[in-house]
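How it folds:
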Amino acid sequence: MLRCSCSDSRNMHITIMADSETLECITEHERILQEIESTDTACVGPTLRSIYDDQPNAHKRFMEKLDARIRNHDREIEKMCNFHHQGFVDAITELLKVRADAEKLMGQVTDTNRRLQDAGREVTAQTEEVIRCRVQQRNMATTVEKLQLCIPVLEMYSKLKEQLESKRYYAALKTMEQLEKVYIPRVSQYRFCQIMAENLPRLREEIKDISMSDLKDFLESIRKHSDKVGETAMRQAQQHRTFNSAVAKQASMGHYIKPVYSLNERTHAHTPNGLLMDDDTGDDEADEEILTAQDLVDFSPVYRCLHIYTVLGDRETFENYYRKQRKKQARLVLQPQANMHETVEGYRRYFNQIVGFFVVEDHILHATQGLVTRAYTDELWNMALSKIIAVLRTHSSYCDDPDLVLELKNLIVIFADTLQGFGFPVNRLFDLLFEVRDQYNETLLKKWALVFREIFELDNYSPIPVETEEEYKLVVSRFPFHDAEIEKQDFPKKLPMSQSVPQIYTQVKEFIYASLKFSESLHRSSTEIDDMLRKSTNLLLTRTLSSCLQNLIKKPHIGLTELVQIIINTTHLEQACRYLEEFITNITNVSPETVHTTRLYGLSTFKDARHAAEGEIYTKLNQKIDEFIQLADYEWGMAESDGRASGYLMDLINFLRSTFQVFTHLPGKVAQTACMSACKHLSTSLMQMLLDTELKQISMGAIQQFNLDVIQCELFASSEPVPGFQGDTLQLAFIDLRQLLDLFMVWDWSTYLADYGQPTSKYLRVNPATALALLEKVYRGMKDTSKKNNIFSQFRKNDRDKQKLIETVVKQLRSLVNGMSS
């Protein structure tokens, strides 16, 4: 019983504690809810966190409390809405009634405003009309009153208009002067007088414009006739040059004719048209009448216009306008046609227009008082000269015909002489001729390049056959060839050079003649002409001919025989260079001992060509050797050799013998170098054949056959195919092959390994790597042979012993190779 009582009391105590905890929890939840409802949303976080920090089931009880609180608030919101619903409905109804009244009131106000605006607009318009009528009445009265004062001015102005319409410009200018000084000042306070006064300068401008139209006709006339005026002036200048030549000839025979035209001394007289006429106008020696500028152009409009502008006190404006227009015309005249460079006529028209322009300006300069000045014409000429030089420099660069460039040079000379006769400085034009000369030389070089190419293409590259004495003299007359031995030979005989040599020599002389043509009439000294000829000839030799020779040598169809002939030809051309110098000296009469005389560079040109031909000989020989090597067809697994050299190698040696026989005409050093180069290349090719990586195995029979071929090469080298070698120099080209083959033929590996690295070694030229590569191929060949012959037991033991020996040698060779690489 006592135990039960204790138990009950403990349960009761637990229940009481639980109830007290529940009450505390409910109180805490009420506090939290009040905080949530009363505090800011940002501060709710700490409050909610305290729920989770309490008892384990506090969250669930708090959610139940929160749901109850939400339901309580919902009931209160519903009660409040039910209480205020009727009032809200009544307010909406009243608002709808007020809206209808407001809309009606708005319509009435709008209509009243519209009617008020319409009525005010009519009143405003009528008021403005009344004001306007009253202003007009007042203005008309004032106008009638003031016109009585203005009628004389208007009558005078009307008179001015009539004078202008009848083209009485001088009277019109006088009337304008009266208006300005007498009539307009009386009524100057009125606007129309101010307008009239403002119109008078415009009327004066109209008079000037009308008079200017005559000037424009004049400018148009001279623009059209400048070509003809220039042609006339240039023809006179050309006749003057011809006449001077005739005078010089007559003077040399004791006769003299009075000059009818002189540019340099200006013995001519200036006529009003600006052209140059002879002093004796009655002396009519010309076949046709010489037209003057005034015969072609009427200058009276410019005089009249100048007078009007002078009367108006605006001469400066006229002068500026005239000069401006003429400058524009100058720019048009100086603008060439795009295809001017194609024909000489294009250049002639261009020069005629320019000469015509400046002949007219020269006439205006002397016929008027200050319309143009010498300073103005000089400035205009300098501007034109710069443009002319730029145009000629550009268009002459397009010319690829030397004849056209030469004609252009002659035109420039006549053009310069013509303008020099009118007092214009032309030194820069003669300076330009030096640039044109360079262009002329370039076109000549291009033309002669084609000539040289054609000569080389048609040459047969064989010595010139001479059948008779006449043929020999004909060749010698074209080319300075002298050889005592050949002269002693009987006919028929052959000259060492081919037919292209005299042709080249003749064409070089023709080039010198063509280059000389440009130097005529340039007023240069003989020394300068000599220098120009030598420089242009040097360009021909060092650039054009040298380039043609280089291209010829590189052509694939040029064989060894042709290359040998080219070397011979260049040797003779080189020897002929001194005759070319003598040829130039005879033309210019300038001693070659002169300090500043330029020398010809033909020696270096032909030496370079000869060296290139020699190099090409070496290359082609090696290529031919490679072609024969490609025909090699060794049976690398043969048991024994055939006992004779390979057919391809014998053919190669025969080819080399016949080739080196052709080299007898070459200088000894060239032939020796070619022979040594061929032997070295043959030795290298044979060595590469043995060491070819694609060749895996070689039998000793193949080694023996290869040895027979090398023996033939050595016999060829010892036969002295080209004279001049000392001792066994040529055989040394095969020394590497010989020592390598001897090592394998004798099988003297002990000696090789023992003496390796010593200067007295028997196999000094055998490289360990080379020996190793070839030994491995022989070793593989021996193993393959042993497999085929394994049925013979007595051979197996010998093969095994030899294989062991080879393996030992291979190891030692590899150690030597590794030692060399380290």
Notes: The longest helix spans residues 58-165. The first strand starts at residue 269 and ends at 270. The two ends are 113 Å apart (CA to CA).
